[in-house]
Every structure is written in structure tokens, then in C-alpha cells.
Design goal:
- The chain is of the alpha+beta class and 178 residues long.
- It has one domain: 2-Layer Sandwich (60s Ribosomal Protein L30, Chain: A).
- Helices cover 21% and strands 29% of the residues.
- Strands 1-3-8-9-10 form a five-stranded mixed beta sheet, with no helix packed on it. Strands 2-5-4-6-7 form a five-stranded mixed beta sheet.
- The radius of gyration is 15 Å and the shape is globular.
- The C terminus is likely disordered.
Length: 178
């Protein structure tokens, strides 16, 4: 396996079927993992915040993958350029935890999730699986050859986050991201 690490506020897309995309320390951050079962194009975004508007100087232009609103479209566009077909994409999400008890003051994980759901809904994207919320961080790995998404949390065994049955068919019917 060719491991490609996706850092915090980063995105990677590959057409290498031997690749494995991995990201660590998903606390309140969210990872968006996409996979095309035919082309084997895989991608992963690890964003930190819901809205690039908090970056008052550049609106996220210098670091677009830090934000749901700027990073999510770029992830899908990069996958299309490498041969992914929006009708076949399997989309899964992980993260959005409340790892710091702020008594609900900031609720970054919840806000990240709400913003991402809105972005995907507006684009007509079906989510095929998710491991969202809770209070622990996660590490995820996406195998490009099989599309398996593996999730590991501290003190727990690694487990597969399977796509809902018929995910590729549902993605084809849904039309994917524009």
C-alpha cells in the first residue's frame, strides 16, 4: 500500500488503486472520504472549520482546505479531474466530536457537521455512511482498491465504516456533486 497522509486542513486525491489515504486526530474536525468504485479514484478532505468567512483577510483563499465551504467543492472537483464520475461516488464522513468540554459554547464539531450537510444537500450528494459526534478523536484510512473505510478511536479496535447497501447505485441515481 502506498500511504498518503492527509494533514489537518488538507486534501488529497489519487487515482492510484494501491494508495491508502489516512488522516489522524479527527476531533471536532471532519473528514470527507470519497471513492469511485470503477475508476478507483479516491479522495479525502480534513477540514477544521465550517466557514471560510472567519478568515477576514482572504476568505480562505490561502488555505481553502481548512474550511467546509471552500474545501468540499475542491475535493470533488479534483476527483472529477482524475476520472471519478459523480454518479458513482461513495461518500462517507467521520469526526465532528466534542473532544473539549466547552459547555456547548463553541460546538465546533456540531457546526462543522451542520455546514457540511448543508453543502452536500445543496449539491445533491447522498452520504453513504458516517461516524460523527461523540467525545473521542478518530483516525481513518481509505483503501483505494476496495473502498474500505477503516475507523480507529483510542482504546477501541479498528472497524470498518461500511457504505450503506447499494451506495454506488444510489450515488448514480442521485447525480453526485456538481
Amino acid at each position: 500500500m502506498n500511504a498518503l497522509v492527509v494533514g489537518v486542513g488538507d486534501c488529497r486525491v489519487t487515482g492510484d488503486p494501491d494508495a491508502e489515504l489516512v488522516t489522524y486526530a479527527l476531533g471536532s474536525c471532519i473528514a470527507v472520504a470519497i471513492w469511485d468504485p470503477l475508476s478507483k479514484v479516491s479522495g479525502m478532505l480534513h477540514f477544521m472549520l465550517p466557514d471560510s468567512g472567519v478568515d477576514r483577510q482572504t476568505n480562505g483563499r490561502n488555505h481553502p482546505y481548512r474550511y467546509a465551504d471552500t474545501g468540499t467543492p475542491l475535493l470533488f472537483q479534483a476527483a472529477y479531474r482524475q476520472g471519478a464520475d459523480k454518479r458513482r461516488l461513495v461518500v462517507r464522513l467521520a469526526g465532528g466530536a466534542a473532544v473539549v468540554n466547552d459547555n456547548g459554547v463553541f460546538s465546533i464539531g456540531k457546526r462543522n457537521y451542520a455546514a457540511l450537510r448543508k453543502i452536500l444537500w445543496k449539491a445533491g450528494v447522498l452520504i453513504h455512511g458516517e461516524d460523527i459526534g461523540g467525545s473521542v478523536s478518530r483516525t481513518i484510512r481509505l483503501e483505494a482498491s476496495s473502498g474500505r473505510l477503516l475507523v480507529r478511536a483510542p482504546g477501541q479496535p479498528e472497524r470498518e465504516l461500511a457504505a450503506h447497501p447499494g451506495a454506488a447505485r444510489s450515488a448514480a441515481l442521485n447525480g453526485g456533486v456538481q
